[in-house]
Amino acid sequence: MTTKNKNMKIAYIGQKGYPAHSGGIERHVEFLVKWLRIYNHQVYLYCRRWYNEENGEPAEISDPGIHIIYKGSIKTKNLDTISHVFLATWHAMRQNYDVIHFQGIGPTLLAWIAHVYRFIFRKKYKIIATFHSIDRYHQKWGWFARFMLRLAERSSLCFADKTVTVSQFLHDYCLETYGRETAMIPNGVEELPNVPADLIKKEFALEKDGFIVIIGRLIPVKGHLYLLKAFKRIQDKTSKKLVIVGGSAFTDDYVNKLYEIAQDDPQIVFTGDLYGRAMEEIYSNAYFVVLPSEMEGLSFVVLEAMAHGKTVLGSDIPANLEVLLHHGMTFENKNVDDLEEKLLMLFNYPQLVEDIGRRAKDHILKNYHWRDLVKKTVDVYQMEK
User: Fold this and answer.
1) How many CB atoms lie within 10 A of CB 70?
2) Largest CB tally within 10 Å, which of 29, 90, 191, 377?
3) Looking at the DSSP assignment, which residues form a beta bridge with residue 213?
4) Is the separation of the CB atoms in 45 and 12 below 8 Å?
5) What CA–CA distance (Å, rounded) separates 152 from 160?
6) pLDDT tens per residue across all 385 residues of the chain
7) Is residue 149 within 8 Å of 106, Cβ to Cβ?
8) What separation in angstroms does the CA of 190 have from each of 26, 156, 219, 354, 369?
9) How far is CA 249 from CA 82, 100, 138, 233, 261, in A?
10) The three-state (H, E, C) secondary structure of the chain, written as one string
C-alpha cells in the first residue's frame, strides 16, 4: 500500500483546534491524524488557543508525532478564520513540510499565498485543499463574506495541487460549476460502542430511547426551526423529548429565536455543546437522530449516528441522500408538514426504527471506515504534481 511509502510531514490549516470537541472539520482532522499516525507520518496542526481553552486547558499531546502550533486570530465572526489562516500559512510555507493541507473553503482563500511562495522560492511542498461544504449558502454570512467564499471556492480549485471533496454531491458541484475534477474521499467513521445514559440522566433527565436529538451548531442552515415547529405540533402524541445539542456560532439572535419558540417547554431540552462521554451517551441512547439541514457537505452527525446503529431522519438534500436514501429516512427539505408526518411514523413504529438503525450500521462501517479512507488520502498526498 502507498501508506507504507515515505513518512511525510503534513501540516493542517483551517481546523480551529485539536483534539476536536465540536465542529465537523475538527472531527475530520482528528480522525485523519489518528490514522496517519498509525502509518508513522508526522502531523503539524495549526490551532486557535481559544478553541482548546473552551473545553478547559489545552490537552497534553503525548504522541511525539503530533505537533500543535498555536497562531492567533481576531475572534469575530468575519475575521477569526481568515486572520488565523494568514498567520498559519505564513509560518507553514517557510517550514520543511511535504504537504500543506487546507481544511474548509474559507481557509483556501489564502492558498494562493502558499502557491506563489512555492514558485518564487522553489519549495517542494504539495498544496491540498478539502472542500467540506458550500459555505456561502449559510445564512449567517453577509454579501461580502459570501462573495469572498465564492472566490475561495475558485482558489481551492486553482491553487491547490489537488482538491478533495467529501461527497459525490460536492464532486459534481465542482465539476459542473468550475469544470474541475476532484478526489472524492468522504468523511468516515469507526465502530462506536453504545454506552449507558449516566451523565445525561443526571444532568438532563434523559433515558434510553426517551428522546430524539438534533446535533450541530445553532445556525440557521441546520434547520432547527423546522424541527421545532414540527415537534410542537405533535408533542402531545408522544412522551419523548426533543434534545437540541449545540451552541451559538456568532448567531445569538437565532439562538434566542429558538428559545422563544421552545417557550421553556419541559419536553424540549437545550444542552449546549457536549463533548466526550456525554456526547457518546447522546448518540447511544437517542431513539433516533434528526438532521433537517438545508445544506451539508457530508455530515459527521449522520455517519456517527449510523455507526451507533441509529436511524437518521434527514432532509432530502443531495449530501444526505447519498447515505440515507436506502439506509435511513428522509423528508422534503424545509417542509414542516412532511417532517411532522415522518416524525409521527417513527414514533409509532419502534420496530422500523430498530431495523433501519441496524442496517445503517452495517452499511456505514462497510463503506465509510477511516482505515480505507486514509489510504486514499495518502494516495493524494503522494501523487505526482
Assistant:
1) 18
2) 29
3) 243, 289
4) yes
5) 11
6) 444 557 999 999 999 999 888 778 998 999 999 999 999 999 999 999 888 876 665 667 889 999 999 999 998 878 899 999 999 999 999 999 999 999 999 899 999 999 999 999 999 999 999 999 887 766 667 778 888 888 889 999 999 999 999 999 999 999 999 999 999 999 999 888 899 999 999 999 999 999 999 999 899 999 999 999 999 999 999 999 999 999 988 889 999 999 999 988 999 999 999 988 999 999 999 999 999 999 888 888 999 999 999 999 999 999 999 999 999 999 999 999 999 999 999 999 999 999 999 999 999 999 999 988 999 999 999 987 6
7) yes
8) 16, 28, 27, 20, 6
9) 16, 27, 12, 28, 19
10) CHHHCCCCEEEEECCCCCCCCCCHHHHHHHHHHHHHHHCCCEEEEEECHHHHHCCCCCCCCCCCCEEEEECCCCCCCCCHHHHHHHHHHHHHCCCCCCEEEEECCHHHHHHHHHHHHHHHHCCCCEEEEEECCCHHHCCCCCHHHHHHHHHHHHHHHHCCCEEEECCHHHHHHHHHHHCCCCEECCCCECCCCCCCCCHHHHHHCCCCCCEEEEECCECHHHCHHHHHHHHHHHHHHCCCEEEEECCECCCHHHHHHHHHHHCCCCCEEEEECCCHHHHHHHHHHCCCEEECCCCCCCCHHHHHHHHCCCCEEEECCHHHHHHHCCCCEEECCCCHHHHHHHHHHHHHCHHHHHHHHHHHHHHHHHHCEHHHHHHHHHHHHCCCC
Task: Write out the three cell numbers for 37.
Answer: 499516525
- Strand arrangement of the beta sheet that strand 312-315 belongs to: 268-272, 241-245, 211-215, 289-291, 312-315, 329-331
Q: Which residue shows C-alpha cell 482538491?
A: 163
CA distance 290 to 188: 19
By the 8 A CB rule, do 252 and 278 touch?
Answer: no
Of the candidates 44, 148, 57, 190, the one whose C-alpha atom is nearest the C-alpha of residue 103 is: 44
Q: Which three cell numbers stand for residue 326?
A: 436506502
Decide: 189 and 303 in contact? Cβ < 8 Å. yes
